[in-house]
Amino acid sequence: MKLATFEQSLRDYLTRFEYFADRFDYSHRHRTELERLIDQYSAFITDETNIKVWDELEQQGIGRISDLIDGLRKNSARCVAILEKYRALKLQKGDTEITDYFKNIEDCIEKEFGSFLITSKSRVLLVGSGSFPMTALLIAKRTGAPVVGIDIDVEAIELGEKVVEKLGPGLKIRLEKTSVEFLDDLKEITHIIFSSTVADKYALLEQLYPLTNEQVVIAMRYGNRLKSLFNYPMKETNDRKWELVDNVLRRDDIFDIALYKKIIA
Nearest Cα to 195, choosing from 163, 225, 218? Predict the structure, then answer.
């Protein structure tokens, strides 16, 4: 009975995510409901009871609901992107209220690189910076390091630049609509952060090997097990190119962090 109820909850979440994702029109008429949904879903995937039910479901085999899992991951990511746009648009009107989801994200940022500290001499790249580039702002404010954020959504870049102008004037933050392989200063980057909602992040990691310097550190945000409903999961890497040097598991956070360093032949 627990499994049946759990699966129905997943289907209900998917229906709601699809509903709000398809109705985004910049009018803010669905903003409050979407914020509530994202906060509820964040709590759902970190709930200890649900984690145990998920583990039981995995033991029985989750292949039969693979389409449901894929749909939840894609549509929750769409809704997070929309929520960031709502928050960026609200900021332009002077509203700086923060939801539980964003609080969780900011808590995660504090733990991003573990012992691989970012200093003012570091250069940071954020892949999937979004419309409200919190990671870029926090890193630049607290360390003085220059940060480059890239995203494939041109509107996210435009909104993100307005957020930076509002919250971080004078900070060394540059946002671009581009792909990693087209950045001119990749060899100078010391730390790279991948958003957990970037679907092809491990393919991009493979591309980065010949383009980056020997000391670069990669922070790959990911979600396995129940967290894979909200994040793209960890994958195996080429063991001749990238070494997993730390795996930061945070029970109460919505994603975990895999840290990689380059293997030099």
Answer: 218
